[in-house]
Amino acid sequence: xxxxxxxxxxxxxxxxxxxxxxxGCISEGDTREEAIKNIKEAIELYLEPVDDDIIINxxxxxxxxxx
Length: 67
Prior knowledge:
It contains one helix and three strands. By secondary structure, the chain is an alpha+beta fold.
């Protein structure tokens, strides 16, 4: 999977990184390399399913969708 990120120098030093296609997915780092490493981890966590967040009732149908 390829995903677009935006890397911006911070006024305080370091970098801030956002992922426009994943609302709220943001990270930072002291260097470009650290910021990119941190946003990769943030993206993985953002996309990781959390079973506790799913509320299942009898009328729901489970399906998988390829994107």
